[in-house]
Fold:
Amino acid sequence: MKPNPVRMMIMFLLLAMIFGCSVQQEPHANETQPQIPKMTEEPADNDKTVKGADVIDMHGMVENRGQLDAFAGQTEGKQRLVRYTIEGDPIYYDLTHKDGHVELRVDTTQDKFGQGEVRTYSCDKLNHEEMDTLIRYKLTGCNGEQKEMELLEIPFDVSKQDRFEFVLRYGPSGTNEINTVDYKLVKDLGNDQMVEVSDFSIPEQDRQKIYRELVLAGYLNKKKLSSTCKQQDADRYDLNVFINGGNRQFEWKSCDKSVDGRQMTAAVKEIIGIVHAGSIYQSLPKTPAEQGK
Structure:
């Protein structure tokens, strides 16, 4: 019986397809896949970091900056600064007043892409420099070839942002509003009376001050805020910040006494004070409380 040429051709094609698929799915013995560093917004939990006590630098968003100011004004004590890499690894900077000098211990052992070492330096002083768009902390009079060491830099230049707008609703009922998105300013006069400015704008120098307050409050960091506290005269805050192509929204009450709550309340009080001091707000009718002052 002669073989069927058509059937033989079909069988050959089927075997070729099966063999080809099996080769394609079989990985090469020496082939390795490239490892892409994982990007994280929040650092991994670490018992060396103490929220509320340590100064935390998360990609330019700094929390508890006042602790550094306090340390700089003292002659004894310790302070830790934790700076996170873009991969979320902590680098520890431990400052200690010691024998009239400031000792700096830099620990990079948890930085997977760093040198993985601990180094100690002795310097004369921790200096704090504040400019219109920048705050810088640096150590001076250090031993070795590097006489000055930059410890921390916090930039807050609003002119370098493609977009910066915000909507803040505040007050006991959250009915006052500062809205740079819709160019609107709303003031609650009490007794169900409201006054609204529909062409509201903030001078550029005040926008710079407001942006500074938000950056120093670490507004891009994850915040744990509460609006469930029962204090009857507590103010409500609803803040929505539009920065470049994204936005951050926060909602809480002034009776939130957590670290994040106190920090954000202090920031919005500064923002409200800046706007209230402006000529537009000053031209509005006064509330009974303002009239009594």
Observations:
- The chain has a mean pLDDT of 84.
- The two ends are 115 Å apart (CA to CA).
- The longest helix spans residues 5-25.
